[in-house]
C-alpha cells in the first residue's frame, strides 16, 4: 500500500483520483468533516453569501477566486 496519511473516506478519495484530481486535493476533500455524506442539509450555493462561497473556494484552493463574482464562484465550486 502507498505510504500516505489516513483518508477518512477512501471511496471518495479513489473516485476523485479516478477523475484526475491530484493526491493532495483528493485527500483534502476526502478528509473534510462531512466527506462523502449526503442528506441535503447544506444550503444551495445560490442561498449562500459570496463570502461563504469564497471561503469554500479557498478551502479547495480554487485559483482566481478573489476576482470571481458570486456566479463564477458557484460555477467553479460545481466543476
From TrEMBL:
Compositional bias annotation for Basic and acidic residues: 1-27
Positions of the Rho termination factor-like N-terminal domain: 49-77
A Pfam family it matches: DUF7218
Disordered: annotated span: 1-50
Biological process, per Gene Ontology: DNA-templated transcription termination
Protein name per Swiss-Prot or TrEMBL: Rho termination factor
